């Protein structure tokens, strides 16, 4: 892409209408104007950025609009910077159409000002918007354009930012090795230029990928480094995201009290800075944790809050995930017809979005519902379909969860040999992954099968393993389950 190509950035707003849009933005403000002269527009822009960081989004927006009017005649670059900041704020608030409109204006303004660095930044942000609404190919295009411009003008910060965004996109697409390489490249660049906020963001993404690879010690180290840097630079938004990731890690390691504490910290920070999407993510995580701990009444308001926030933010994946969690609650509360209808709706949503793991998780939940209704043949079909997806996506824990459910279904259907095999396979994965809570359920269930089959030695060895895992899991429900199973022998 040459500088000529830059001037051909695809805009949906005709150039003749650009000034009308600028005028509309000014009229939209309807604010008392500042007494600062135009030369202080940059000072006002910094103030607006600070308001946004502190969570005062309305006041931040007002000042951005004020800067646009103050700077438009005397400082085109500051005016473009204000438009870019305004578009980012609108994207954050879920007003995607207005954000898209303002990104187009921003790119045009930077082109007129011959500010290639600004064009690179605006293309990057535009890519973030496309990624947010699920248009991954378009996002990738914008990131590549931004990367090209930044390299051409030797703008290392821009190159690092583009690498970080590409890492996030590859992570979203489950291309973990590619994501890891992008994060590593971004991290090295940020460290070289001394950008501590960028370094923290890259460390967080890197940690998330390492957690997915099962490199838990390495992930913990990345998260701790990121948290220290976010605190140093005063970025509460990033800090909230880091606590959410750390909570996911602690939960994965069975340290449920620590996970709950980190989720609560993430919620407090998200509320403080007005981060609706971060609040939704943390609320759903906390609600799902409480649901898995058997605290159903406590889980419900968190999941309902997440559902409402995702709907307001027009975040389809988050909305679908929270619908799945809501359906799981309905099943637990005994409203099987409503839960089954919700599962079918969610399954269709995941399939339309091409989210294979979401599809597999829903099929597994549908199988659980059908097992509880003694529709064992239908349940087995759903479990097998879920297993096929988990195997294809190399999701070992998902595969173990489906095998566990299939083992329970087989035992209830009287197929004890099949149940034994499937529960043993599930326990093997949980043991290898050191995932304590599901290991408790798998081994306790397997011990019951051994008891029915009158395999006393295997039963006693297996229930002892379940008891040890329960004590290490910090899960009171799992501990109670083991006691009940042992008492029934």
Highlighted features:
489 residues; mainly alpha; Serine Threonine Protein Phosphatase 5, Tetratricopeptide repeat; 25 helices; disordered N terminus
Q: What does it look like?
A:
The protein is mainly alpha-helical and 489 residues long. It has a domain at 1-152: Tetratricopeptide repeat domain (Serine Threonine Protein Phosphatase 5, Tetratricopeptide repeat), CATH 1.25.40.10. Helix content is 82%, strand content 0%. It has 25 helices and no strands. The protein has helices spanning 3-6, 18-29, 41-53, 57-71, 76-92, 96-112, 116-132, 136-152, 156-172, 176-193, 196-212, 216-233, 236-252, 256-273, 276-292, 296-313, 316-332, 336-353, 356-372, 376-392, 396-412, 416-433, 436-452, 456-473, 476-487. Helix 3 runs antiparallel to helix 4. The longest helix is centred in the middle third of the chain and has 18 residues, at 176-193. The radius of gyration is 26 Å and the shape is elongated. Mean pLDDT is 87; it is low at 1-38.
